[in-house]
Structure formats: structure tokens, C-alpha cells
Amino acid sequence: MIIKEDRDYIISLVKEFLPSVLEEVGFDPTVKEPGHSYGEKVEEVLASKLIKRDRRFALPVIKKGKGKQTRKMQDITFNDYFVNIKFGYKKKGQPNMVSFNRLSERYVNKEIDSYWILSIDGKDNNVCLFNLYEHLDYTNTNLGTGQVMLSESKFYPYFNQDKDYTITRKDVIMKLKKISQDATESHVKLRLQQEEKRQEMFNAHL
């Protein structure tokens, strides 16, 4: 778990670096979907600056024999804790956070005890850092894509960086279990509805 003192430190560094990061990537808020257009560039440049400043930051470790490993859960680590950098603009959407299977399996198997989202809004340069496991009630999970998405329009008005949202391991697992059940039922229902329409289409031509 990243303690509050370190969370505040990380946020202060990001705020310090952000103006130069945006300048370096040539950030233009007038383009279509600026958060999507510049997200990857901002995240890469910011990660590089953080790593150069403090060696507690590091890029994900590539493990031998595990393939290309191009889709990691984390953009960087801080003292080995996973941090996923999410840059956006006017954050009111439902961006993908992480694979639900990875989020569940890594936690249940005690490979990680937290999963940190470093959120940056290019509209007002607002920065926050939170443990996604503590805010699962503000996520949606689609088992078609396999992704956990954050409901930004609900989450950000509620979130307070200074508040303690600590939750027990049992409660996290119970929430993940319920999400899995609900998402599975929703996915199966959708697939059955789609199949029913296909069958009606086929039958109309027999």
C-alpha cells in the first residue's frame, strides 16, 4: 500500500512536471478527443521524468518466457506498487482502467494489495491518485471486452484526496465476486438477445 505521505509526494511531483510534459508533447486541447490523442504520449513522458527524479519509480519488469508483454497492468511502479497513469480531458467518460481478470486474480492470489490510478485532467491540470480496489462501486465491468471502466462523472465529484477509504481484503473480494456475477449475467443476457434476433432473421428467410 502506498502511504498518504508518498501519495502526496507523487501528486506534487506530477503537478511540478505537468506543464513541461504538456509542452514537450505539443498538447493542443482544440483537437478532437485531446485526452485520447495525447494520452499515451503524456503518460510516457511523465513516466520518464518521474523515474529520472526518484529511483523508487520504475518501468514494469519484463519477465523472460512470458511473450511480448505489451499490455501491462501498470505504466510504472512506485516501490513495486502498480501505478496506471490515466490522462484525459474534461474527465466525464468511462475509460478503461484494467482487465477484470487481472484485477481479480492478482488480488486474490496476493500478488498485489492495491492498484493505483494516477489520474490527470488536461482541462484544469487536476491530479489525483487512488487505489481502484477502494472504489469498485464507481466502476462498470464489461465481460465482452473484459475491461473495468471508471464512471468518471460519478467518481470525481465524490472523491476526496485527503479522505481515508481503507477497505478490508474480505470486502474487496466480496465486491469483486458480486461484480463478476452481475457482469456475467448481463453479458449472457445480451448474447441471448443477440442470438434471438439472429434466429428471427434466419427464420424469416426459410
CATH topology: ECO RV Endonuclease, Chain A
Query: For the CA atoms, what is the radius of gyration?
Result: 19 Å
Question: What is the molecular shape?
Answer: globular
Structural class: alpha+beta
- Number of structurally distinct domains: 1
The largest β sheet comes out as: 5 strands, mixed
Number of strand elements? 8
Offer a concise description of the structure:
45% of the residues lie in helices and 18% in strands.
Kindly list the characteristics that best describe this protein.
single chain, 206 residues, alpha+beta, ECO RV Endonuclease, Chain A, 8 strands, globular
Summarize the structure in words.
- By secondary structure, the protein is α+β, with helices and mostly antiparallel strands.
- The chain has one domain: ECO RV Endonuclease, Chain A, CATH 3.40.600.
- The protein has 5 helices and 8 strands.
- It has helices at residues 4-24, 34-53, 100-108, 152-158, 169-203; strands spanning 57-58, 76-78, 81-88, 96-99, 116-121, 126-131, 139-142, 147-150.
- The strands form 2 sheets. Strands 1-2-3-5-6 form a 5-stranded mixed sheet. Strands 4-8-7 form a 3-stranded antiparallel sheet.
- It is globular and about 70 Å long.
- The protein starts with a helix and ends with a helix.
- The model has no long low-confidence stretch (mean pLDDT 93).
